[in-house]
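Q: Structure tokens for this one, please.
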Amino acid sequence: MAWKETDVVDSRMMFISEIIKGDSSMAQLCDDFGISRKTGYKWLGRYKEYGPGGLEDHSRAPHHHIQAMSDETRSAILSIKNRFPYWGAVKIDHRLRRDYPGLGHYPCISTISLFLKQHGLVISRKRVLRATPTQSPLTRGKNANDVWCADFKGHFKTSDGKRCNPLTMSDDVSRYLLCCRHVEKTTHDLVKMQFARVFREFGLPLVIRTDNGHPFASHGLCGLSRLSVWWIRLGIHPERIEAGKPQQNGRHERIHLTLKTQTAEPAASSIELQQRRFDEFMQEYNYERPHESLKMKTPAEIYSGSSRRMPGKLGPVEYAYGFAVRKVGLRGEIFLGGKALFLSEALIGEYIGLEQIEENKSRLWFCDYMLGTLDHESRRVKPVKMYPLSSGVNP
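A: Here is the predicted structure, written as tokens:
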């Protein structure tokens, strides 16, 4: 006896009558009437709250029609949209209530959306099919500066033909955009210079999450690069997403999408003007743009700098008593029993600690970062599987 076979309201009333009798369970009645249990509970709740009238279909029209909006409200909506052309109805509704407390009556979000559509102020977007979340060994931050995300937004050319390489960094918890800066080349020295600038301004995070590209990673032991080795010396845990899975860094990728839409479609006429767009975007994104995931707060309202300050000079690397210490040579090797064992060129000049765990096995450490397990007989190193930082971050 599905809804469609008889008058809909009568069918719902029959369903409620059977529920009230109590002769059959909710599951059995829903099966008999050809509806889901979710639908059954919905109509039972409507009946309890509104009586028989609650079983009628509610209008899908906006609660308040556009014609009912005052001229002041219309003007305020258009003023906000003019200032923030990429904002949708949800953000405009939040701003309207914050900046215009004297309106008295505020239209619902669907009414604002319809109003924007009628004025041709809605940007149509293709539907994005979201990938299914995957389980991965990534650190779950609880506070600001637990996890930073870093990446290069895909390079593009300004209209004068110059290549723009935007380096971006963001705080994973607060969404605060820490850096959006063009770098001339994606070399170690230039990228390190930008990280040093951001570290001096905001302090040090516990974890930096990146993809597997240069200069964040290499094909060497544990994927270490000169840049990630420097991070470890600073007490920062490098963390990389799995190859081909940008959704593991989804929050940062979402920032890139917004950044591209607002600053590079089309690109500016020069690198200097493009950087000015980046700076203006950062100001709006951090201080003006509310985020639904932050309960309509801005990133600046959530974020505060790290108490871990960048040192003026790196101290010596020290290991616990009982560790054997070896210096990595000019070819990326250490010497054990007079024989060279290659580790990584990224570690040249650094000191490695060997912690014996069995008669012929040792753990290899670089500062507090475990590199892997060394089998002394085969002289092979089994790199450690990437692991999330747990101390002070994960529950």
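A few notes: The chain has four domains: 3-55, 69-118, 147-302, 324-383. Residues 147-302 form a domain with the Nucleotidyltransferase; domain 5 fold (CATH 3.30.420.10).
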